[in-house]
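dumping this here before i forget
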Amino acid sequence: MHGHRPRTPETERSRRWFMNKALLAGGVAAMATMTGCSSSSSDTASSGSSAAPGGMPSGGPGGGGGGGMGPGVSQTKYADVVGVTTDGEVVEDLYSIHSTDVSTDALVKAAQAFLDGLSTKERTSCTFDIDADEWTAWSNVDGYDRKGVRMGDLTEKQRDLGYALLGRALSADGLARTRGIMKLNAFLGDSNGGNQKTLTEGHYFFTFMGTPSTTKPWGFQYEGHHVAINYFVLGDQVVMTPTFMGSEPTTATYKGEKITLFRPETKAGLAMVRSLTAAQRAKAVSSQSNGNEDMKAGAGQDNLKLAYEGVPGSGLGSAQRKKLLDLVGVYVGYLDEGHAEVKMSEVEEYLDDTYFFWMGETEDDSAFYYRVHSPVVLIEYDAQAPLFYKGDTTSASPSASASSDGGGPGGGMGMGGGTPSQEHIHTIVRTPNGGDYGVDLLKLHLENDH
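structure:
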């Protein structure tokens, strides 16, 4: 038996969900009143939410699909997930249970080793049933009240086992990207005075759905500020979506290490849009400027209806089609190499029906939004206004705080008053039509094998 059952309608209105909605709707003041939390929490404190200093909201604006599960956006129960569709109707027969010839043995062993390294209490706190609603309970917001085991509360040996699991699930680039996001999250916390457990390397959580197995369905979720990796496994098949990755800032020096994130995504997007002819640009590039939050498929958007926009792959030349595949490959490439190849073959099969859409300017340093959308993949890149950070990215100091309400980068708290820039980027990858969280594969498994 696992430690938790999926939430019922009654528990949907539990203290956890009330706290999250209050945090996002009312900021830290409401949160502090409810929980008694203060900004003096240490990195090794328990896993509740904490307030940010200077009256700054913890996390970001959650409205729409911009990343955080915020006001007006509610969690979809796992049993109700149909996935992203263009019109509410799921395209059938896109996915099947089959062998990929890419072994998951080492992944299963790494997951089991991590779980075996936990105490009984820790293991109980992070294990759920395979169809648990915990799958869909992720958020980008830093102060979101998460379940599972928190990396900052684990021993160094336990954390190393956690990173070993991520190393098996992700490519080397994927692991480096995840660790870079975590480090810049700590840089952001330091730049705003420190003593905030949510803005640290340690405020990231593991949860497991099902039991690691080479034959039965299972998966894990790794989640925190600017990272949400949902990883479903069935035999030697893998689904790593939804995967949210972002950062603010996107370049800085942390503990002597220069970290620069999202350059491949930025460059590949620019290469794609610049390859278009005038006629193609008329279809692909919106006349509307990119706003502060253009992402559609963030947290809480598991059943999003999103029509195709832009230029289709069928309208591209061979060199342009390669650039489109190269762009998708940047994101898919954060999955372990063997399964990334499997996914890219799936993407290429539907390349004619893959749409590329763009909003904003196309200079090297422009802040822009783009989307790649097909029956089997949805990718969004969204440059947003800095929420918290305003200052020198070569060092973290309290003087770099973005608590100002002035205009320009860092002003307006990212809620419409600031200027989008490449120093705050959100990205999301989804598998439309029931692919996210391995929902369709699990249904097929239960129908055919049980």
